[in-house]
Structures are given as C-alpha cells and as structure tokens.
C-alpha cells in the first residue's frame, strides 16, 4: 500500500465544494460539485440526502470504497457537513479528499496536495476548522483570477465564460481522472501524471 494513499486502505470521502441550488449551479465556485457529478456517473447511482448534512453516494472508484459527498450547506459552512459525514463513516481527515476551485491557477489547471493553507477559500477554512486540521487532501481546479478590478468573490460567483464552457467538460473529466488517480495510486503518482500538463 502506497504511503501517500488517502485513507491507506479504508474508505475514502471524496468531497466536492459548491453552493446549493440552481442559481449557483454553473458558477466557478461550484466546480467541485461538477467534478463530483462526473465521478458519480463513473460510480453509477444517485446522490441521496444524508443526515450528516450532505448529499452522498457510496460506491467504488479505482478499486476502492468511496463516498462521494456534496455538502448541502453554503460554501462558507461546508465544514459541518464534511465533519459530520466523516464521523458517520468513521474516517479521519487523512481519508478526506476535497475538490475545489482555485483562483491562483489558470483555468482548467490541476494541482493535488496534502495539507496547506486555505488561500482565502472560505470552504477550505470551514473544513479545516471543523476537522481540526489542515492535513486532508485537495484537488485544486484552476478558475483564473478575474481581470481588471473585479472582486475575486464576485468572479467565483459568476459562470464560466463562453470560451471556457466549450472546454469545461474536458477539464472536468480530467479532474475526475486526477481524483481517481489520487485514490487509486497515491499523491506522488497522481501529481506526476497531472501536474505536468
């Protein structure tokens, strides 16, 4: 078993961050939800409401048991549902992988890591506080910084541009591949495969 494998053999919680409701569905901030929808298509099945405060789907990816998790709270309160779901399934932070938008990466670029700061991301800040540690895995999906004087908070609450939407499905598929590689092969192997491009 690889040392840098999330969960080291047990169940893995794959969490996608976003805001609930149709108003936010296509926002840059909801890219975590969009990647989870792609993973759900691979797992087969539908998300169901869970008492931990999230929509969940249990299944297998890369030969391992996973629970796909979409918090039902708004982004800045993601930590409660993530921690509640982790407690329910009896897994620690080392078994949690969070997929989220990242302003400091070009559109569609991916970076995978374990631990680190929240870089102003309210969803990550909430999860770190609720889990009591920064030591969980992240799949960071680039959404670019806004051009001009637009506030980054406004930028992430807008939909992807027309040009970006043409390429979005390809990038979501690749991000799902990266999450699957992280779960199946470990952090170093997934970084080698997905950081180069």
TrEMBL record:
<comment type="function">
    <text>Hydrolyzes ribosome-free peptidyl-tRNAs (with 1 or more amino acids incorporated), which drop off the ribosome during protein synthesis, or as a result of ribosome stalling.</text>
</comment>
<keyword id="KW-0378">Hydrolase</keyword>
<feature type="site" description="Discriminates between blocked and unblocked aminoacyl-tRNA">
    <location>
        <position position="19"/>
    </location>
</feature>
<feature type="binding site">
    <location>
        <position position="24"/>
    </location>
    <ligand>
        <name>tRNA</name>
    </ligand>
</feature>
<dbReference type="GO" id="GO:0004045">
    <property type="term" value="F:peptidyl-tRNA hydrolase activity"/>
</dbReference>
<dbReference type="InterPro" id="IPR001328">
    <property type="entry name" value="Pept_tRNA_hydro"/>
</dbReference>
<comment type="similarity">
    <text>Belongs to the PTH family.</text>
</comment>
<dbReference type="GO" id="GO:0000049">
    <property type="term" value="F:tRNA binding"/>
</dbReference>
<feature type="site" description="Stabilizes the basic form of H active site to accept a proton">
    <location>
        <position position="101"/>
    </location>
</feature>
<comment type="function">
    <text>Catalyzes the release of premature peptidyl moieties from peptidyl-tRNA molecules trapped in stalled 50S ribosomal subunits, and thus maintains levels of free tRNAs and 50S ribosomes.</text>
</comment>
<dbReference type="InterPro" id="IPR018171">
    <property type="entry name" value="Pept_tRNA_hydro_CS"/>
</dbReference>
<feature type="binding site">
    <location>
        <position position="74"/>
    </location>
    <ligand>
        <name>tRNA</name>
    </ligand>
</feature>
<keyword id="KW-0694">RNA-binding</keyword>
<dbReference type="Pfam" id="PF01195">
    <property type="entry name" value="Pept_tRNA_hydro"/>
</dbReference>
<keyword id="KW-0820">tRNA-binding</keyword>
<feature type="active site" description="Proton acceptor">
    <location>
        <position position="29"/>
    </location>
</feature>
<dbReference type="GO" id="GO:0005737">
    <property type="term" value="C:cytoplasm"/>
</dbReference>
<dbReference type="GO" id="GO:0072344">
    <property type="term" value="P:rescue of stalled ribosome"/>
</dbReference>
<dbReference type="InterPro" id="IPR036416">
    <property type="entry name" value="Pept_tRNA_hydro_sf"/>
</dbReference>
<keyword id="KW-0963">Cytoplasm</keyword>
<feature type="binding site">
    <location>
        <position position="122"/>
    </location>
    <ligand>
        <name>tRNA</name>
    </ligand>
</feature>
<dbReference type="GO" id="GO:0006515">
    <property type="term" value="P:protein quality control for misfolded or incompletely synthesized proteins"/>
</dbReference>
<protein>
    <recommendedName>
        <fullName>Peptidyl-tRNA hydrolase</fullName>
        <ecNumber>3.1.1.29</ecNumber>
    </recommendedName>
</protein>
<comment type="subunit">
    <text>Monomer.</text>
</comment>
<feature type="binding site">
    <location>
        <position position="76"/>
    </location>
    <ligand>
        <name>tRNA</name>
    </ligand>
</feature>
